[in-house]
Amino acid sequence: MKPFDYVRASDAAEAHDTAGRIIAGGTNLIDLMKHQIETPSKLVDVTRLDMHEIAPSDDGLRIGALVSNSDLAAHDTVRRDYPVLSRALLSGATGQLRNKATTGGNLMQRTRCPYFYDTAQPCNKRQPGSGCPAMAGVNRILAVLGTSDQCIATHPSDMAVAMRALDARIEVARAGGGTETLPMDDFYVLPGDDPSVETVMQPGDLITAVHLPSAPTGHQTYRKVRDRSSYAFALVSVAAVVDTDGGKITEAALAFGGLAPRPWRDTDVEQVLLGETPSDALFDKAADVLLADAKGHGGNDFKIPLVRRTLKAVLADLTGVTR
Amino acid sequence: MTEHLKMDQVQPRLLDETEQGALHAPMPRPEGPLKVTGTATYAAEWKLDGMAEGFMVRAGITKGRFKVDASSVEDMPGFLGVYTDRMVRNSAQGTAGTNPVQPGDQVQYLGQPIAVAVADTFEQARDIALALKVEYTPDDDAHVVMDDSATYEDDDDALDQGDLDAAMADAAFSVDGMWTTKPHNSAAMEPHATLAQWDGDKLTVRSSLQMLNYNKHEIADSLGIDVKNVRVLSPYVGGGFGSKLGMSPECVAAAVAAKALGRPVRVVLHRNHVFETIVLRTETRQRVRLSCDAEGKLTGIGHENWQANLPDEGMAEPVDLATHLLYGGENRRYGQHVAMLNRPASGSVRAPGEAVGMLALENAMDELAEKVGIDPIELRVKNIPDRHPENGTPFSSHGLKACLEDGAERFGWSQRQAPKARREGEWYIGMGVASAARLNLLMESRARVTLNPDGTALVQTDMTDIGTGTYAILGQIAAEMLGIPAEKVTVELGDSDLPEGPGSGGSWGAASAGSAVFLGAKGIRKKLAERLGCGADELRLQDGVATGGNNRRPLAELMDGPISEEGHLEPGQTDDDFTQSGFGAHFAEVAVNAVTGEVRVRRMLAAMAAGRILNPKTAQSQVWGGQIWGIGTALTEGIEHDPRTGHVVNNDLAEYHVPVNLDVGDLDVMFIDERDDQANPMQVKGIGELGLSGAGAAITNAIYNACGVRVRDYPATPDRIFPHLD
């Protein structure tokens, strides 16, 4: 580990330190520092700031950035109105990690691509321009959507996938002043030519909260497929909010984990479903749209048929179609 | 004095005559409270005055030469030194007793330990290790994939008995298939760690090792010093599973650095280093052929394997170990082909041979039973041989039939249905069975037993307890033999200055170290009988009182001071005259998700025949461990090597998936009552690896019974199941 300065921010102004790297739970950052994948010269600990509250907002729920994953999963309102989020949280990591990990930190966690973690290997995310050994290497857990020819890393969060389905917005206090509330697709940046850039966060910026809109109607679920029953990242996961009325699908919000560099949502998939009578054939059509541009790299080819099967099962469950 | 026994003939069943009741009792491990309260001191937890910290430097290329530039880091904070002298390529093989390959400036695999960086603090050492400038001259002839173009070392002595090809051609039913298994890591919870301390020429190594009687020689040989100057301390070992059989690379690195710096040096392997520099279980490809007549009587067995290792390791996974003795059939063919690759070295991981070999054999038996149209238990029972099917020796004891049949009854095997017949919602439910066999081994062992007049006793040996229950059972054996409560016995282990035991490995610990303790106590019994004036056969000892020849005296009256005897056991003729093996049967009930192919093990039963069970609690724990390893082997565990560099890609416990609690369903264990008179004077056989042999195959056979998908490529992750489902 590189020597670094440690500062505990006592107010927001101190947190907006453009020379510092923000640390909250540290469940990912400290590992990255030990491996010297990240080598901040200064850590700014924001855990004493007043961002621990989950509170009703004008149009839904405001989740403070420092709310732990455990507390968020167990929160009464979340369990009642946003069960997809509670389920997603509980499917991630372990009890110990969820106690420590925060809402803001979870959003900022980095990929688990094994080549990113091995500093003896090139990696365009770690060292832009050095190459991507994952493409022709061991890529079983890596992405099939939203990738570029520079990077096929996935975003590993479960929580963020549920939030994406719920149309969450991320509240960012900018270092230069002012606060923005960003939809998740505006917050996360696809790899493109420079996979080292993952979000629109700039030095000194601070995630202060996540906003959930009012509780959606219909049924919610989070389904995660993984190599073992716990403490494994998603091979694929589906967060779904679906409602039906009079035999037709009236609401559909679908987000996917394990597939892409960010929690993946494609509203075209939902458009296929809306207003239609649920059926196996319809679900296949939705999967066709989702996977139209999907591209495997050998070891992860299986994710494409696996997410189709998983999506269809989830839709069948939520719409009551007999399988 | 020494009580010596060479196991040339059957010994009386003394432990069925003694009356203390310390043995056969489910005694908890006496060191357990220390471990769960964090007060047992593991290797990395020792602290010595002036101690410096080392961090290993790994090679960044697959093959070639390297040169480190220590000047590149000497100005860094805390820098004390960078050392490359005598660095070993990887951990020593089990029972090697000599130095591992010391490749000098050669790199032979990516991740090889090439230097140790030493500093005042661990963080500084790690920073220096990562910053160290290393100049490489790569070779372009590295080979990292086990394909046709690799160089193979073949076993020219592999058995070829009868004519298997003809048997296959004439068979009423046959199976001919290719199975693959990925490499495995032992994944012991405690990483390897060493604290080395010199006092003049004398070196003390506090490390986490399984076999001090070999390890002290490996360390001395690697350092070029006299073994008399080496003392190894491993009182507590946080899991071994084979990974600590041989001395690990940081032992040498710490000793070299400590010598150069004139102060103690501690080196703890990072988990990534454990995955790279400690021997792993090779990947395998296995061809299994079975042929039988119309009734299911086997006429032929073939079991050939392909595997990988670094050159000069002198170890190959004995994939066909159990196949030689498990089933009859006159035509038999084996073959072993070891690819020489530039990848981390292969060596012993729990149940070398059976852990992977039994997957293929027992899957093939399941397939054959289906073809013949008989129950897989019936097929197995029908083919149990009367004698070893190749060398003709009789079996010392044989509990396979009882395990299969009694186990079937306890498990509810009769409820098993046809594939895909049982479904609960999204889940297919199925049952599977597999045989278990593990060759029983006995090793030369010594132990010192001391009985005090106050009715306490001391047992001393350099044997280790790697979480298996050695402390418990050695104390129980001494207590039983000496007629005192087990809590009155203190057991000292893990110090190479103590009498040489067998080390923990090969499932021989309880039988070998236990017999040495048994013999030491037997020597004491002889002396007590003399003092009491009775024959040793007449002596009865219970609760500190000796009875015999119409005399009854408390030990305190009989003894004027401590009596100390060394027990010395050697394997003998019974090993040559008989085939000795533990046997068992594994049963599994699994659920397979019809959508995703995810598999959940709902329950397992292991029926085990392993001779006398010394302590049903620790024995059960060993079998549980085997069953859980079976789950990992069948479903989740597999090292991925990069196809270009050969390095271990999933080199941590986040991506190398050992089973978690939630993966483990209800585990049931039953022991078949047995005494193996040929095995040793206690009639016990090994249990540590038997519980793994075949366990994974029961699970994959259950997968087939559940959903109709045959698994031949391990582990059976969801992507290997769902494509074959509707």
Automatic annotation (TrEMBL), chain A:
It holds the Pfam family FAD_binding_5. GO terms for molecular function: FAD binding; oxidoreductase activity. Keywords: FAD, Flavoprotein. The keyword Flavoprotein applies. InterPro entries: CO_DH_flav_C, CO_DH_flav_C_dom_sf, Diverse_Substr_Oxidored, FAD-bd_PCMH, FAD-bd_PCMH-like_sf, FAD-bd_PCMH_sub1, FAD-bd_PCMH_sub2, Mopterin_DH_FAD-bd. Gene3D superfamilies: 3.30.465.10, CO dehydrogenase flavoprotein, C-terminal domain, Uridine Diphospho-n-acetylenolpyruvylglucosamine Reductase, domain 2. It comes from the Bacteria. Residues 1-217 form the FAD-binding PCMH-type domain. This is Xanthine dehydrogenase family protein subunit M.
TrEMBL record, chain B:
InterPro entries: Ald_Oxase/Xan_DH_a/b, Ald_Oxase/Xan_DH_a/b_sf, Ald_Oxase/xanthine_DH-like, AldOxase/xan_DH_MoCoBD1, AldOxase/xan_DH_MoCoBD2, AldOxase/xan_DH_Mopterin-bd_sf. GO terms for molecular function: iron ion binding; oxidoreductase activity. SUPFAM superfamilies: CO dehydrogenase molybdoprotein N-domain-like, Molybdenum cofactor-binding domain. Residues 37-140 form the Aldehyde oxidase/xanthine dehydrogenase a/b hammerhead domain. This is Xanthine dehydrogenase family protein molybdopterin-binding subunit.
